[in-house]
Amino acid sequence: MAVTSREELKQYCLRRLGQPVITINVDDTQLEDRIDEALEVYQEKHYDATERDWVYYELTANDFVNGYITIPDDILVVISILPFNEIIAQGNMFSYQYQIALSELSPWRPFNQLDYFMKVTNYESISDMTTVTPTMNFSRHGRKLKVFSELSDLGVGYKFGMQVQRIIDPEETVSVYNDKWLKEYTTALFKRQWGENLSKFNEVQLLGGVTINGDRIMQESLQEIERLHETLENTYMEPVGFLIG
Question: Is 42:179 a contact under the CB 8 Å cutoff?
């Protein structure tokens, strides 16, 4: 059965640990904290937890007072910013790529790809030298985007786009809760919490003479968590980009 909600994820993980056959000695608030912890790791590192998107923004008077732009919580990373007029110019009949390509087209004659490439490259080189795209720095925990340009030079109403890495909201895209890695990781965190609780009363004896070793449960969970972190880094994380120059 597919897991489609936070509560279903919690109950699934508890069943994996043995409930209701075995009593899992963990308070509900502790379980909620562990789900938050699992989602935080998942959203920070798993490539299925985020999506790359372009968002539109227009500078306001508050941005000038603050000296920075406040970024919504669902945006994990701001990758780049670009003046809006450059974004809307791409791909239409008024773009330089379109006009250069049009000049290269003649009826029944081959398209000169090399000449097209050289002209576009030359245009972009001149554009880079004469057009300044604002640079920026993004502080994720402060939710602040600082643009390294005098905002007063840009003016209220200045439009630009941001290329961002946006967190997929599991409440809107419920299939997130059914992610195999997330279910296994949440279960391991529940198990660690269970072991930590029991270790305070080590070698607890249940009805019927059954003894539960809290330290052993915790050690097993730590090994599972380490294995899942390795799987995340080796299988589910996007490769680190390289900077040249």
Answer: yes
Residue 114 contacts residue 122 (beta carbons within 8 Å): no
Residue whose pair of structure tokens reads 């057009």 in the numeric block: 131
- Lowest mean per-residue pLDDT among 20-34, 87-101, 208-222: 87-101
The angle subtended at Cα 231 by Cα 23 and Cα 226, nearest 5°, is 55
* Count of structural domains, the chain: 2
pTM of the model: 0.71
- Do residues 57 and 145 both lie within one domain? yes
Residue ranges making up the domain that contains 109: 50-167
Predicted confidence (pLDDT) per residue in 27-37, tens digit: 999 999 999 99
Please, how many CA atoms are within 13 Å of residue 49, restricted to the half-sphere of its CB? 22
Count the neighbouring beta carbons within 10 Å of the beta carbon of residue 21. Answer: 7
